[in-house]
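Cross-posted from the bioinformatics board.
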Amino acid sequence: METSSVPTPSPGGLPPALRGILPVLIAVPVLLLFDRLLASAPFATYLLSIMGVNVILAVSLNIVNGMTGQFSIGHAGFMAVGAYVAGVLSLSFKETALSFLPVAASDQVFLVVALLAGGAAAALCGFLVGLPSLRLRGDYLAIVTLGFGEIIRVVVQNTDAFGRALGLSGIPQTSSLAMVGFWVFLVVLVARRIAYSSHGRSLWAIREDEVAAEAMGVDTTGYKVRAFVVSAFFAGIAGGLFAHFVPIINPGSFTFVKSMEIVVMVVLGGLGSTTGAIVAAVFLTLLPEALRSAFTVMGAEGSLAQKVDQIRMPVYGLLLVALMLLRPQGLFGMKEIWEVLPRWLPRRRKGLA
Amino acid sequence: MSEAVKTLGEREPRPPLLTVEGLKVHYGAIQALKGVVLSVGKGEVVALIGANGAGKTSTLRAVSGMLKPSAGRITLAGQDITGMKAHLLVPRGMAHAPEGRGIFPNLTVQENLDLGAYLRSDTAEIAADQEKSFKLFPVLRERRKQLAGTLSGGEQQMLAIARALLSRPQLLLLDEPSLGLAPQVTETIFRTLREVNAAGMSILLVEQNAHLALSMAHYGYVLETGEVVMAGNGKALLESPEVRKAYLGE
């Protein structure tokens, strides 16, 4: 009797219980080490933190856009909810410390609480936006999520408690690379767990054909809303983290442009591919910086340097166009990196020989 | 309204599985179904024939819970299922192979079949049922690792039927299984459907190909502009001059 094929990669034949904890055991010391090593390099720390936040955003958006096939373009809205809720909380508890803990530890406790509150608020918004998604498909849903993102931004911009257009400053800068890394790790773990569970199967089915999914007994409504909630939660966490390592947050950080940036990451990585979203998020965070240093290294100074800097963004755009033309399905398509790389590598070797 | 229905031939008595009474469906202001009455007995093949826009697909979709009826009553195995959602009807024994096949094109044949058994957890029996579907449609076994979207139209239809059967339904709803298929392929599919029925499966079949549907069905209903205008056993309908004129082009 042939058994059905389950698409779980089993590395090294470890017992499943150990395989579950192993990534944690590896990740925590590595993250702490990174944190120490980069303590004297604030820009690298900042860039890596931004990268981490973008990875969280891309991987979480991929749950909705990639796995479930619902086109949401308001992810920056959820991020803003998380950033402002966590930011306001941290500001109001700025002077408070848990006396039974060292100050640094107490700070981290408050940070986690603020992050969770921001994530929960974003998740609630995700639920509210998820509701219309029951009735809307494709372009229509995109417009609803777009509207949601803008509403959040405009509300923030006109609320005194959120600092209006000036934004919030003075939020304790308690985030660290280790903290960002921990959440990156968590969102990836959750995304992978979802993808390889029956939950993931249901999402794929909805993405492929909603009517057929329903005919198979998939509660399409429930799964779509749940996907939205999980996705929004992590966007909120990303926003919260962001608020705790940038000196100031204002509505300008959460515009439609930011939402599109995240969508681009997901599409570029390949809709449905978690590793694709990660690679694309890392790539798109580094690209503008790499172009910046590339153009600086080219030796231009003064006004010429400014001119060179101006063509940086068009080059970025052109690169995106070229990538989409060459690989319209995204870097990895719907697959993961370990499914795609083995197929690329032999071909490359043959080409060299 | 039942006076308006012309009935031909005898119906073999069977315990009822599905009953539909006074079923009405509206799309906005447009009324698609104006009180459809029909029933399917246990182990029976019932065909629903009619022209384009007569309401065949709407009837099927209302029965399987994909459409909410605005009036009427539907029962399955004696239980009222009116207005119940599709995903809740699957565990009650309803399997719908929707129009246009509704396979998952970017998943493999195997994954499609796995999804057919979505609500079941009896792994060993699922595997046995899959074996059965590979016996019914041997070509699916050869193609099991292929993406379903790369199958031919006929193979996709076979996959859709095999997948629907994997939920172990009491009643199989088929919407236009012959749509866009070569006559030979259609024949294969209908031969298999006969086998499935011979093993006890009740089938409600919507078809434009009236001849094909009626020659297989125990009983048939003719739908016209949202109403049943004629009913009868398959043979009698096939021989009736009205049906021959309207749907068989004679």
